[in-house]
Amino acid sequence: MLELRSITAGYAGNAPVVRDVSLTVAPGESVGLLGPSGCGKSTLARVAALLHRPDSGTLLLDGEPVRRWRHRAPREKRTAFGVVFQQARLSADPRLPLTDLIAEPLRATGRGDEVPGRIAELAPVVGLTPDLLTRRPHEVSDGQLQRACLARALVLRPRLLVCDEMTAMLDASTAAALVAAVEDYRATTGAALLAVGHDRTLLRRWCDRTVEWDGLT
Question: What is the pTM of this model?
Answer without folding.
Answer: 0.93
